[in-house]
Amino acid sequence: MNPLNAHNLVIDVPGRPGGQVMDFTVEKGQIWGVLGPNGAGKTTLLHTLAGLRPPRAGEVRLGSSSLAGMKRRIVSQQLGLVFQERHDEFPATVLETALIGRHPWLSPWQMESGEDIEIAEQALKRLDVAHLADRLVSTLSGGERQRVAIATVLAQKPDTWLLDEPSNHLDLHHQVAVMQLLKARAGDGCAVFMCLHDLNLAARWCDHLLLLFPNGEACWGPAENMLVPSALERLYNQTLVTVDVDGAPVFVPAQV
Ligand SMILES: Nc1ncnc2c1ncn2[C@@H]1O[C@H](COP(=O)(O)OP(=O)(O)OP(=O)(O)O)[C@@H](O)[C@H]1O
Fold first, then answer.
1. Superfamily holding 4-253
2. What sequence ranges are listed for the domain ABC transporter (predicted)?
3. Which of 23, 25, 49, 108 sits in a 20 to 30 Å window from 61, CA-based?
4. Is the minimum distance from the CB of 39 to ligand 1 under 6 angstroms?
5. Atom of ligand 1 nearest to the CA of 197
């Protein structure tokens, strides 16, 4: 796979002057989590990495190519994005939505083949929404809709997965199921880069973390180096209690 590289990247957060230069590469097999308070710029970073927003400085590269100069079709064969907010106003069924994931692999005006339908159906099954295949997406619950969005990227088969709050709307079982799916994709040689509000999900599943502060400051590295209670308390402006569960830290907000 072509690794996703932030090269001297400064994200363009509206109204925020300056911004830290970021330089990191999301390598094959890695699972990155982006943590930060509301408004810190997590979605802006994700959309910049996906090529949907221009950076203020620097560039995003896929392998040795600058993302800005690549055809969107080629980019979407390599990068998949699960958005935080979706506006599913177009009346489409769950299966039709999952099939959108196959579009980067079809030539213009080419119809989906039986194999594409099979891939989409398998993706729906993997996300536990196959029974909803004929339902309009607009009639689904929040968690069902989130799982369809993830199934659509699974059908897309990108090497690098970008996800904005993938655990949004998911119950505990499906949160774990989605994290297991992402871990399995990483185990198969993909890379995962996701924004998370749940610090403990990040601590449990991510091997790399990027902390994004509201003033634009950022730091990143292996998770064990980033999970420093004092840094996390500063990040969230919240006192934390750290407890050890099965040898791993779990962070709980202090009551006072
Ligand atoms: N189009 C826009 N016009 C004005 N301000 C914007 C625009 N898009 C984003 N912002 C601002 O940029 C900042 C960063 O937004 P962003 O969505 O990246 O934050 P976030 O860390 O993902 O937040 P959250 O945790 O709430 O999802 C916020 O203060 C937001 O209000």
1. P-loop containing nucleotide triphosphate hydrolases (3.40.50.300)
2. 4-239
3. 108
4. yes
5. 25
